[in-house]
Amino acid sequence: MKTWQWCTVVAGLLLFTVIAFTYNTDMFQTIDARASQAIAGNGIITAFHYLGETIFVLVLAAVFIGICIVKKRNDYAVFTFATIIGGYIINQVVKRIFERPRPEIADQLTSFSFPSGHTMASLCWILTAVYVLNALYRQARVHTTVWIGATVLFMLVGMSRVAESRHFFSDVLAGWGLALAWFIFCVIVLQRWQQTKNKQSGHKKRHLV
């Protein structure tokens, strides 16, 4: 177990919690307004929102779970289900707890705004994809640049919601914090599960000998 993992979980939850109870303050209203003014209507950034669409994410989750099952790695199949589907469920529950209205624009969505679902979904599936594929295909080790690229990608998806005026920037920030905390927590549980299985396998082998 690595200390940085728990630190990341705590930091993500702390970021989410702080924003959850302060997004109506003058400070965050100013931050939200400036972020919106900076990128509102940016067509390039807006295009990335498709990577966080519910149907797209669910199909990807099914594909990755199927790959894990074919590879006979049920641990990674459960991990993928937990990170992506679990992350979606968490987002929906939290939205209904806070019930924050979306920015006021014409033809706005009717669902709640806080935290951003696209933001959480994209972070969960992108990091899960990199993590699982790296584990299943070790001959192609993932370098730091890939993780950086994945981070930039899910950040663009989050910012696309601000560019479209579908969310406040504070919705996106909170979504990153909560999703990152959930993803790393799932990694911790997965690693503990794998360690336990390895110990049990070791005991069985020694018993057979």
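The above is record 1. Record 2 follows with the same two-line structure.
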Amino acid sequence: MNLKVTGLHLDVTQPLRDYIESKLERITRHVDHVIDVAVTLSVDKLVQKAEVNVHLSGKDIHVEATESDMYAAIDLLMDKLDRQVLKHKEKLSEHRAIPTPAPAPEATL
């Protein structure tokens, strides 16, 4: 998994980067085929905004969240991303064919 963390009007510190990586472990537990993750953190006056683009095989997921605290915005972002990834995973598993039961042998009397 390639991780890219970008800060707009914000310096991305190592503790902030480590916090993001620890939260992304939850996503990698659900799906194994995460190709690329791009996280963008931005500050606009009192609003802290976190965005993420996740490139899975066959699907791109974009999620964003805003809060007054950057760590709270990241928590909210990861909750939303977790729901989206689980939804995508359920859609993949629903397309599998349902096996039909074999017909019961007829008893001769």
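The beta strands are 2-8, 34-44, 47-56, 59-67.
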